[in-house]
Give the backbone structure.
Amino acid sequence: MEKSPLLKSLAARIVEEDVSYRTKMLEIAAGLSDVIALGRGNPDFDTPEHISAAAKAAIDAGQTHYTHPAGIPQLREAIADTLRREYSLDYGREEIIVTAGVQESIVLCMLSLVNPGDEVLITSPRFTSYDEAVRLCGGVPVPVPTYERDDFALMPAEIEVRINSRTKVLVLVTPNNPTGAVTPPLIVRQIADLVKRHNIILISDEIYGKLIYEGSTHLSAASLPGMKERTITLNGFSKAYAMTGWRVGYMAAAHSFIRMIIEPRHTLSINTATPSQYAALAALTGPQDPVEAMLQTYRERRAYLMQALTDMGFSYGMPGGAFYIYTNVSQTGLPAPQFCESLLRETGVLIFPGSMFGDDSDNYIRISYVQPIERIAEAVDRMSTFMARQ
Ligand SMILES: Cc1ncc(COP(=O)(O)O)c(C=O)c1O
């Protein structure tokens, strides 16, 4: 069939992605009743009430217009305070840009750093939006593998062997999606030394930085000596505050860099939705007990699920943070995508395979514990029945 003028005119940077697996899974799920969705990275909690109330009050007060492209000053100030208090990071409010989720920060980072042919190293398995953003800018994403034997921590030696004259940026995601891995402080220090030695820029994605469990410690790379000037720190509200739909995240970097990208940020979307910025302000300045309560609930679900998976004979890397358990299903003899599809068809439990996170080993599935514990227990029962049938 003759291609339409629009299709014929597609820019070279737009390539057809294979979304057939995801589409197939969602179609199967749509045809089933009583699906237990442990697939997406979307908290099941409602946004805490005082946060929603702040947005409603902002709308009623007429806060429905453009703001400064970098965000309202009060929010940037509150972000700088939070970064100082909770992560020992030394950013002023003029060193913060508020964006539409961390997602927009990722695009802005790549737009402002990547020239055609530049290579960007990315913790892997990974949140593959990084690949897409790098490619859209003409760069080359280079996955840096992590392994279950290291609890999926990003290892300096794996980074080092992939560095060459085209390497420009390293993306460290800790805690990571999909593995939940928290890169230990000692290793973050080694990575900091490495990026300084090789003169590489670090993007430190800490969107799960508040979701840390006992036995793990989060260290923000930009708090280390000599790192602020070569690091962009990303963080946001989607995960810890259950605010995925509000679309608020931010990037923090040295002022000389931030002032250069205010204009590109303005070009992308002018500013983050104004009522959402007021919601984010309330999230940071209001009571933190709802975050504590959600973290406690995740902690209970995680403990339950880890034990249940162990009892079923599955192994996994220790998930020190986030709300994922990256589980090894190789002993079932089924490749992970097939495991997930059969599990969904036969039991109604929706889980995503590692292949959706750039993992070509076909050995892993990512279980998101974003359902009440009774539903997780029900999912475990269904998985046990499924396993017994294999
Ligand atoms: C590692 C990582 N970074 C960034 C994002 C984007 O988050 P948002 O745009 O909702 O802030 C996600 C979402 O799942 C993520 O897992």
Notes: The chain has two domains: 5-46+290-389, 50-285. The longest strand covers residues 167-173.
